[in-house]
Amino acid sequence: MEKPPSETDAAAHPDNRIGTHPPRTRLWRRGRVVAEGFPVADISDHLELPDTVVWLDLCGPRDGELHVVKEELGLDPVAVEDAVSRHERAKLDRYSEYSFLNVYVPDVVGGGLRMHEVSAFITPRALVTVRQDPGFDVDELVRRWDDHLRIPRTDDPRDTMALLVYGLLDLTVDRQLDAAQALDDDADELEELVFDESFQVREIQLRSYRLRKNLFTLRRVALPMREIAGTLLWRDADLVTEPLVPYYRDLYDHTLRAGEWIDGLRELVANLLDTRIALQGNRLNEVMKKVTSWAAIIAVPTAITGFYGQNVPYPGSQQHWGFVLSALLMVVCSAGLYVLFKARDWL
Fold it and tell me: What transmembrane ranges does the database entry give (predicted)?
């Protein structure tokens, strides 16, 4: 398989051996790609040139392997620690010279929800993305950047940086919406199971538990995206330039949609579980009603045979007509109760 053009040659440059996969680099000048796959150590040299923006992507790096990046960009040790640590919350932290972004890109696989954590250091002219695992499709991110290059903007490097950050956030929110759609489909299947005549209780319980767990996980990483997009749009004017404002507003609307969709699904699942309990109670009442009706029917011949089984003389005792009369009473009374219960829909 041919390696991507932006992937660096770790064999030729030992300093590029960072993380589990070779780093990827790209250089834009005045909004156009002019170099790819250059060594990490050359980042500072490229940044000395005017009108340039650099992207560096790292996959699964350890804290000790980021010394080159820290030296090249002057990153704070606290932010670097957050980038290499797993399970940091989704957030946007502002430092004096740069911002630190942490997001989660979901992926629905086999009914389970898998989260790919992606961190990013956002400087005025450099973007460093740090992936915790190779599950995040960085090629899709690059394709989006290439497509977004057609967005009207100036040759200001701030526009290019705003576009790169927008592409990363747009991909993240789109994947969260895709996950919400997949969970919505699971909710539809759960609804069909709840109202199915077979009423598979164990399957319903398993699916409802898995769905609620996935919704909780997705909500935990999707809701902070609203704050991140809002901060970039209204409180961090240094990053979002005027040509990109409409696109960040659209991104903010998508974060609102994702949060509302997930909250709506959580309410739907809760209502389905309440409906399941109500249906289960109704089914139990139907069973109890039928059992009670049959018990009443059986009680009639039991009472009659018990009466005629007394060890004392009674009308028809030791007589053929007495047996016929008792049998006739059992048939007539039982049939009468059956017709009555059937007419009242108890059987």
Answer: 291-309, 321-341
Instruction: Give the C-alpha separation, 211 to 201, whole Å.
Output: 15
The Cα–Cα gap between 145 and 137 comes to: 13
162 touches 145 (CB < 8 A): no
In the chain, where the domains are located: 14-279, 283-343
Contact 54, 27 (CB under 8 A): yes
Q: How many CB atoms lie within 10 A of CB 45?
A: 12
Model pLDDT for residues 19-55, shown as the tens digit of each residue = 678 889 999 988 788 888 888 888 888 888 888 999 9
Q: Does 266 score more than 80 pLDDT?
A: yes
Cα separation of 111 and 108, whole Å? 6
CA dihedral 318, 320, 326, 328 (to 10 degrees): 180
pLDDT digits (tens, 9 = 90+) for 185-228: 998 988 888 887 776 778 888 888 899 999 999 999 999 999 99
* Res 103: pLDDT: 94
For residue range 61-73, list pLDDT tens digits in order.
876 777 777 777 7
> pTM for the whole thing?
0.80
| CA dihedral for 332, 334, 337, 343, sign (positive or negative) | negative
In angstroms, the CA 6 to CA 40 distance is: 12
- Provide the CATH number for the domain formed by 14-279 in this structure: 3.30.460.20
